[in-house]
């Protein structure tokens, strides 16, 4: 994306996740009771409804579930079309993430993709996606 | 729910003019639409004991509108947070209050300057309406057309839905708007016009997207008994339903081509005692063309995956007879209910569906904020 990134408005649940991402660690939460992996960060497991959890680093790998090519300049400075992808994580099938596309050609439905970190500054990194392998 | 079915009615509808710049406040718009709806019903503001709306911080609250119209002691009001997913829930809740005897005459309204003052989906810099925004806005994924385009693409990939299907639907809704004096867009369009439109967010072009409109609409909800004695043919509220959708927080919907409406529709039909085959006209939330396609499936008018060809064909249930958000104007859902009322009263003029007795009207099906709502109405 060519526009200046909008800084995320983090909250008390999400701030530790963004701190890990800034260190280029890709993590989701793992429920200590039932093992369900979840994203985005919050206190309670949506499956067993208990509040004990730990971070679990996973491979930033998933499959393309859908994508768009955004043309309308919704953001100040977004002059060129850019691609936003929706990715379902391979190690955490209940978790989906969004990001920008770093492939040469357009993404394909079901394509295996890998995330990479783009450092905005010391406090913020974003995760973008491109073809895996 | 037989205890709820047909006990309340919509006794009047009112509109302001639709425009791109009303030049007035949302408070003014709300008052004008409310007074028009009361006039239509043959009632006055002195008869009103309840007010209901929904907002996303962009409009006049009942606590402001009531005093402004000299309604000093409402016994019930609702100031619902939310956008298109709760548009029909507001009317359903008003009907519940009336059916329970808490209030007798509730005016539901929505007043927006959605073009000249508060445009939807700006830059994501505002107060987030959901914790999900922070994970999307940094990637330039901030606006409803982008979000809906993402889900439309998934439907195209899975079922072979084509852009021409979306286009034919846009063309047919415009043809309906041509017959609607309220509509903002009354010049006919062709599929070629649709395909020549500029990209907004692929796979959506300009004519996949709804208008951004300044305007207001209001409805008077009262008991079926009282409505029967008023000047207009009453339109009975046969069913009102709410549904919860999926989001990041619910573990990620494994199939984004199925909306919250699929779970809710059977409950809605059961309440009303009808099925999709009995629906004579459907006014379906059309923030984007795809929203209609997926709801035609999830409300049971066609099988999952067949919504594209079904919507394109123009066969089957008449849809968005007023032109919808795509061509009439965007009043966030309530104008779809108002059009259903017109159809059931038989006063829809050149766009009247012959013999319309039962209507469905739906809200945003649960993609952006994970909730939906809908009504089934019946000629009284």
Q: Please, what is the CATH homologous superfamily of chain B? A: Thiolase/Chalcone synthase
User: What integer is the average pLDDT of chain B?
Assistant: 94
Instruction: Determine the CATH topology of chain B.
Output: Peroxisomal Thiolase, Chain A, domain 1
Mean pLDDT metric of chain A = 93
Cα shape of chain B = globular
Roughly how much helix do the residues of chain A carry, as a percent range?
under 10%
What's the SSE blueprint?
The complex is a heterodimer of chains A (about 130) and B (about 375).
Chain A: H1 15-22, E1 27-31, E2 37-38, E3 53-57, E4 61-70, E5 82-89, E6 96-100, E7 112-121, E8 124-131
Antiparallel strand pairs in A: 1-2, 1-3, 4-5, 4-7, 5-6, 7-8
Chain B: E1 8-15, H1 26-41, E2 50-55, H2 62-68, E3 76-81, H3 87-99, E4 105-113, H4 144-159, H5 163-178, H6 191-196, E5 199-202, E6 204-205, E7 214-223, H7 224-228, E8 235-244, H8 260-272, E9 281-283, H9 289-298, H10 307-313, H11 324-327, H12 334-345, E10 358-362, E11 371-379
Parallel strand pairs in B: 2-3, 2-4, 9-10
Antiparallel strand pairs in B: 1-7, 1-8, 4-7, 5-6, 8-11, 10-11
Summed up:
The complex is a heterodimer of chains A (133) and B (380). Chain A is mostly beta strands and 133 residues long. Chain A has one helix at residues 15-22, and strands at 27-31, 37-38, 53-57, 61-70, 82-89, 96-100, 112-121, 124-131.
Features:
heterodimer; A: 133 residues; mainly beta; 5-stranded antiparallel beta sheet; 3-stranded antiparallel beta sheet; 8 strands; 6% helix; 40% strand; B: 380 residues; alpha/beta; Peroxisomal Thiolase, Chain A, domain 1; 9-stranded mixed beta sheet; two-stranded antiparallel ribbon; 19% strand; globular
């Amino acid at each position: 994306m060519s526009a200046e990134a909008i800084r995320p408005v983090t909250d008390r649940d999400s701030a530790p996740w963004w701190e890990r991402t800034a260190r280029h660690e890709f993590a989701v939460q793992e429920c200590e009771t039932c093992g369900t992996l979840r994203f985005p960060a919050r206190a309670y497991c949506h499956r067993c409804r208990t509040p004990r959890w730990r971070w679990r680093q996973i491979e930033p790998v998933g499959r393309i579930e859908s994508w768009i090519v955004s043309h309308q300049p919704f953001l100040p400075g977004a002059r060129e079309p850019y691609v936003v992808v929706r990715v379902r994580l391979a190690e955490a099938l209940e978790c989906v993430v969004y990001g920008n596309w770093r492939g040469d050609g357009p993404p394909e439905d079901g394509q295996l993709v890998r995330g990479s970190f783009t450092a905005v500054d010391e406090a913020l990194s974003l995760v973008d996606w491109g073809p895996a392998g | 729910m037989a205890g709820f079915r047909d006990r309340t009615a919509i006794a009047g509808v009112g509109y302001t003019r639709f425009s791109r710049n009303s030049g007035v406040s949302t408070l003014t718009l709300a008052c004008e639409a409310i007074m028009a709806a009361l006039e239509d019903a043959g009632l006055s503001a002195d008869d009103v004991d309840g007010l209901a709306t929904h907002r996303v911080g962009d409009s006049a609250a009942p606590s402001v509108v009531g005093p402004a119209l000299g309604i000093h002691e409402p016994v019930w009001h609702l100031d619902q947070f939310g956008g298109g997913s709760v548009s029909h829930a507001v009317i359903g809740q008003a009907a519940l209050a009336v059916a329970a005897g808490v209030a007798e005459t509730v005016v539901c309204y929505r007043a927006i300057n959605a073009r000249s003052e508060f445009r939807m989906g700006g830059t994501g810099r505002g107060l987030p309406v959901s914790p999900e925004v922070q994970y999307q806005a940094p990637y330039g994924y901030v606006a409803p057309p982008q979000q809906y385009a993402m889900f439309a693409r998934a439907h195209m990939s899975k079922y072979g839905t084509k852009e021409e299907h979306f286009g034919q639907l846009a063309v047919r809704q415009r043809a309906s708007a041509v017959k609607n004096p309220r509509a903002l867009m009354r010049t006919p369009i062709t599929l070629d016009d649709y395909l020549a439109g500029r990209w907004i967010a692929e796979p959506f072009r300009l004519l996949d997207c709804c208008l951004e409109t300044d305007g207001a609409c209001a409805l008077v909800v009262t008991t079926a008994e009282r409505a029967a004695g008023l000047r207009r043919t009453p339109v009975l509220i046969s069913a009102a339903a709410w549904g919860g959708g999926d989001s990041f927080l619910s573990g990620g919907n494994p199939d984004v081509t199925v909306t919250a409406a699929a779970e809710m529709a059977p409950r809605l039909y059961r309440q009303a005692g009808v099925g999709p085959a009995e629906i004579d006209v459907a006014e379906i939330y059309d923030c984007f063309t795809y929203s209609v396609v997926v709801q035609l499936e999830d409300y049971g008018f066609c099988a999952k995956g067949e919504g594209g060809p079904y919507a394109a064909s123009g066969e089957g249930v008449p849809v968005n007879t007023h032109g919808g958000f795509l061509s009439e104007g965007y009043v966030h859902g309530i104008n779809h209910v108002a059009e259903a009322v017109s159809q059931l009263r038989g006063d829809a003029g050149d766009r009247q569906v012959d013999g319309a007795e039962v209507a469905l009207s739906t809200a945003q099906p649960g993609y952006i904020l994970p909730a939906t709502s809908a009504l089934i109405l019946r000629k009284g």
